[in-house]
């Protein structure tokens, strides 16, 4: 009886009774299937996308061992973020052996960065600390200038983020100027290079606003923009800073401390630079409003002026003058009569006062033959006893004065 190769198990095969290739592959496949899933750690050395599927390679930390792996498109869509060459990861793989081709490989069901959980936990603790210090307080955010003359840009060299910002900003305002400093956007050089670029642009008096842009990435690659040194430097900067690091779902600490967080580099350009077409339209609208308001005001004032001019007193001002002329003449006549009467009364009163003064004046008494005797010191002599014998006297009569010497004799009064 002849034994066919298909019926001989690989362990029972001999030179005279070999097993078949299909039987050998089936045996290997059955053996490998019993392994199940395995978690393996290493560094990604290749990540190639073909037809939505990924074909990559993983190397050991020693660099002496490698494996190839596949990530099917359905798994890739479920996991979201892609890996890249240089990432330190842990893969959950299952060995596959294809019976028809005899090829061996590993299929990835899930993956994650090594230590990412601990890093994210430290990140959240730092976020809470900075929030408690008030670095995230909206009141400390500086307003962006309406039209920056010069924009400072920190981004990767020849990056899509740089092209997007330049293109969108120049479309909105063609005369906008940039002062760009290229810096690493991931890895060990990320933080020191971004710190140096920030210090240089913040010290430049021509720079009105600074954009720090990257354009998204997985949490591992964005860790540099959550570094405490960079976050505190941004908070201390005197120039307004826009964070355009991640996409909508990315959230490094730099977003919280920046004066404005843009969802993408394109959004940053639109938020920082005004649209010249929109501004021209706004100016045109404002001019139209001003013209309309000014026209209405002039028309209103013209109507008011015409209303005032239509009043009789302004239409024929001489009428008012004529109606008041007779009244004015009557008042003038009354004033003249009152003045004349007042002058006549005053003249009579003045004459009476003059007559009274004349009657009371010493000259009138002297004219009637009387005289006034004065002592040497000017005292008027009122009694004979005031002038003892030998006293010098001055006697005043109507016309002049004469000197005299008292004899001391006292004559009896003759009575009235």
UniProtKB/TrEMBL annotation:
User: Where does this one sit in the cell?
Assistant: Cytoplasm
Give the Enzyme Commission number: 3.1.11.6
Give the Gene Ontology MF terms in alphabetical order: exodeoxyribonuclease VII activity; nucleic acid binding
Q: Which reaction does it catalyse?
A: Exonucleolytic cleavage in either 5'- to 3'- or 3'- to 5'-direction to yield nucleoside 5'-phosphates
What are the residue boundaries of the Exonuclease VII large subunit C-terminal domain, all occurrences included?
A: 135-353
NCBIfam families in the cross-refs: xseA (TIGR00237)
Q: Which family does it belong to?
A: Belongs to the XseA family.
Subunit-structure text: Heterooligomer composed of large and small subunits.
Q: Any idea what this protein is called? A: Exodeoxyribonuclease 7 large subunit
* Gene this chain is encoded by: xseA
